[in-house]
Design a protein that fits this description.
The chain is mainly alpha-helical. The protein is built from two helices and two strands, in the order αββα. The radius of gyration is 27 Å and the shape is flat.
């Protein structure tokens, strides 16, 4: 009977072979799908794909004016909630956040 490590090695080798086969077949599959879509006049929207433009970056949740300016020009209003990474880094270094008041 094979050991666990031998079986794991066989499984890993099979996964590599499976990935290679998938990559080899991928171009053919894509061409077939595109041909069927053209033949039936389908679009990605018909398949449930999104036709909406990419999302805009999230706006800041706060309309409060900035009270602090970070070492690289980052702004922070100093409100409730999670502190920005630069604020946490400044505090972790033992610096005073008031040194960054605008």
């Amino acid at each position: 009977m094979a050991t666990y490590l031998e079986l794991k090695a066989q499984a890993d080798a099979l996964m590599v072979q499976a990935e290679q086969a998938r990559k080899q077949e991928l171009a053919t599959v894509i061409q077939e799908i595109k041909a069927k879509m053209k033949e039936y006049g389908l679009s990605t929207a018909d398949l449930g794909g999104s036709t909406a433009p990419a999302k805009k970056p999230a706006k800041s949740k706060s309309d409060a004016p900035a009270k602090y300016r970070g070492p690289n020009g980052e702004l922070w209003a100093g409100g409730l909630g999670r502190k920005p990474e630069w604020v946490r880094a400044v505090l972790a270094q033992g610096q005073n956040i008031d040194d960054y008041l605008i």
